[in-house]
Design brief:
- The protein is an alpha/beta fold.
- It has a single domain, classed as Vaccinia Virus protein VP39 (Rossmann fold), CATH 3.40.50.150.
- It has 6 helices and 11 strands.
- Strands 3, 4, 5, 6, 7, 8, 9, 10 and 11 form a 9-stranded mixed beta sheet that branches. A two-stranded antiparallel ribbon has the order 1-2.
- Helix 2 links the parallel strand 3 and strand 4.
- Helix 1 runs parallel beside helix 2.
- The longest helix is centred in the middle third of the chain and has 13 residues.
């Protein structure tokens, strides 16, 4: 890949340097919020569905030195970047990148063996809003290759009984998400609304759900990303 088509971005807090496309799909705050929300334990085997350039997988691996991550990405250029980013950051022994469709995962991503699945899936149905002209970005933002039901089904196949799924999703589709999770017997356990500013409607939803668990949901205090205008902090 031509270096002129890439940028190198530094996540100083985690000591990561990540290559990503100069044009097309680039990771955003959503991915970092997901990484912050995910609760992992030493020894966890984690799957990152739709890893993009690998940002969530690599942040989690850096913060949790005793986990392993299998990062799945269907788009060849993004999968190659995720693999290179793992190598450049010295995490390729614990982060493996698999170029595959989550609807038909290969044997190297075995069913029923993962303690935790994380995902920052496309939020928009194909007919909702203007389709991004860049094909790579369109697939990352619109449900072109996988819809919500397909993602949840893939997560259930991968999780061991009692394993957990953590997602970031559009707040306006919260009912769709919670319905899909319960329908797949992945019960929502923690939920947090994310607001862009004080008094603004929630834009995102962070959810942790558990395979084959009972009904009990903790709604956490909302996360407000920017302080009030008169707040000196």
């Amino acid at each position: 890949m031509d270096a002129r088509e890439l940028t190198e971005d530094h996540l100083a807090a985690d000591g990561l340097r990540l290559l990503q496309p100069r044009r097309g799909y680039r990771f955003s705050l959503d991915a970092l919020l997901l990484a912050d929300f995910a609760r992992l334990r030493p020894g966890d085997r984690v799957a990152d569905l739709g890893t993009g350039c690998g940002v969530v997988a690599l942040v989690l691996a850096r913060r949790h030195p005793r986990i392993t991550v299998t990062a799945v990405e269907i788009q060849p250029r993004l999968a190659a970047l995720a693999r290179e980013n793992a190598r450049r950051n010295g995490l390729d022994r614990r982060v493996s990148v698999v170029e595959a469709d989550m609807a038909g995962l290969p044997a190297e991503v075995p069913a029923g063996t993962f303690d935790h699945v994380v995902a920052n899936p496309p939020f928009r149905p194909p007919g909702a809003g203007r389709l991004c002209p860049d094909p790579e970005e369109a697939q990352a933002r619109h449900e072109i290759r996988v819809d919500l039901g397909g993602l949840v089904a893939a997560a259930r196949r991968l999780l061991r009984p009692g394993g957990r799924l953590t997602l970031v999703y559009a707040a306006e589709r919260a009912v769709d998400l919670l319905t899909a999770l319960r329908g797949a017997r992945i019960e929502p356990k923690r939920l947090r609304w994310v607001h862009p500013g004080p008094g603004a409607p929630a834009r995102l939803l962070l959810v942790e759900a558990c395979r084959d668990a009972g009904v009990e949901l903790a709604v956490l205090p909302p996360l407000v990303l920017s302080p009030p205008e008169n707040d000196p902090g």
